[in-house]
Amino acid sequence: MSISSPDPPGEEPDASVITTSRLELVPASIELLQAALDGAHVLREKLRAEVPASWPNEFLDDAALQYTREKLSQAPHDRMWWMYFILLFRAPAGRTLIGSAGYKGPPSGDGTVEIGYGIVDDHQRCGYATEAARALIERAFACPRVTRVVAETLPELTGSIGVLRKCGFRLEGPGSESGAIRFVLSRQDCEGGLDLSSQ
After folding, report:
1. CA distance readout (Å), 19 to 23, 86, 113, 134, 138
2. Which of 186, 44, 42, 180 is closest to 110 using CA atoms?
3. What pLDDT score does 93 carry?
4. How would you classify the pairing of strands 181-186 and 148-153?
5. pTM of the model
6. 99 pLDDT above the threshold of 70
7. For residue 92, what pLDDT is reported?
8. Residue 196 contacts residue 141 (beta carbons within 8 Å)
9. DSSP letter string over 46-105?
């Protein structure tokens, strides 16, 4: 994984594009979020990428986009702690939007950050969610304030649970919403480093 414009040691990372072996995670801006709200043709132009008919991925709706846009307008310096557009840069059709991922806000007082991710239907089961999640985890732990990364899902979402287990998360217990379960990965768990080579 590489991050454009690496930050000096000991400093918090900024909202740079994250590049993995197959993906680019482009941090959402107010302009990009508005483009997503305006429709696929506008988003295609702003991202300079193909936007498939299967976009947006499950659980990403206008309300989520508007919420993120509002948070960014209130605190633009927290941009790295919100949504990223996931682009597949070696797709047959060229650079293609295949999902979204990101954090659910800056680290809490105890250093916890929560991640989420989603891939459009026709690009699932290719390891992209795992690749994006690992990139987000590594990005989070590059910030000295972060002590652990959590993620919540539903018990029936076996694919999502599989992603978390591949990334080294362990089940912690009930989530913040009814029926959800929470997984956790601590900084100590990653002392040996994350294996980003396998999909």
Report:
1. 6, 10, 21, 11, 12
2. 186
3. 85
4. antiparallel
5. 0.89
6. yes
7. 86
8. no
9. HHTSB--TTPSPTT--HHHHHHHHHHHHH-GGGGGGSEEEEEETT-TTSSEEEEEEEESS
| Comparison of pLDDT for 58 and 9, the residue scoring more | 58
- CA–CA separation, 1 and 135 (whole Å): 7
Please report where in the chains the tokens 């950050």 appear, as a residue. 113
Count each helix (H run) and each strand (E run) in the chain, helices first: 5, 9
pLDDT at residue number 60 = 96
DSSP class of residue 189 equals: G
Candidates 3.40.630, 1.10.760, 3.10.550, 3.80.10; CATH matching 2-144:
3.40.630
| Residue range 131-160, pLDDT digits in tens | 999 999 999 999 999 999 999 999 999 999
Q: Which helix (H) or strand (E) holds 183?
A: strand 181-186
